[in-house]
Specification:
Blueprint lengths: L7 H4 L4 H22 L3 H29 L5 H25 L3 H19 L10
Helix pairs in contact: 2-3, 2-5, 3-4
The chain binds fe (ii) ion (2 copies).
Length: about 130
């Protein structure tokens, strides 16, 4: 059963592409969560990290452009948070390349993904509704 469910009342920004990308993110989070529960989290960690890095390249950039075109008041907060997450992901990647994927790194990655949904989408991305 999915841990996080798409809830349009809380989560929809009103920009169809952004909402689709967020739903894809939730789907990947749930897969990762399920893999952890099945004891396959370490195998899933690598593809999850790669997904999140690719997502940062495509989704973050797309969303930044939408906010910029609309002169959204959340534009700077969104870009700053994305830049921070890009650094976090680079950190995970270089650590994993050096040391492999450990249980604590994997749980750290899951925590970052959860936090991203709760703190970022629901407080920053959601401001697309206003602009
Ligand atoms: Fe964002
Ligand atoms: Fe987003």
């Amino acid at each position: 059963m999915a841990t996080i469910k798409w809830n349009p009342t809380q989560m929809a920004t009103g920009v169809a592409e952004v909402d689709e990308q967020h739903q894809e993110w939730i789907r990947r989070y749930n897969q990762f969560d399920e893999a952890i529960h099945q004891g396959k989290g370490l195998e899933a960690a690598k593809s999850t990290l790669n997904f999140f890095i690719a997502y940062a390249d495509t989704h973050f950039q797309f969303e930044e452009e939408v906010m910029s075109k609309r002169h959204s008041p959340a534009e700077k907060a969104n870009k700053d948070a994305h830049d921070h997450m890009r650094l976090v992901l680079d950190g995970f990647k270089s650590y994993a390349e050096k040391h492999g994927y450990s249980m604590s790194e994997m749980l750290g990655l899951k925590f970052q993904m959860e936090r991203w949904l709760i703190n970022h989408i629901l407080t920053v991305d959601i401001k697309l509704r206003d602009a």
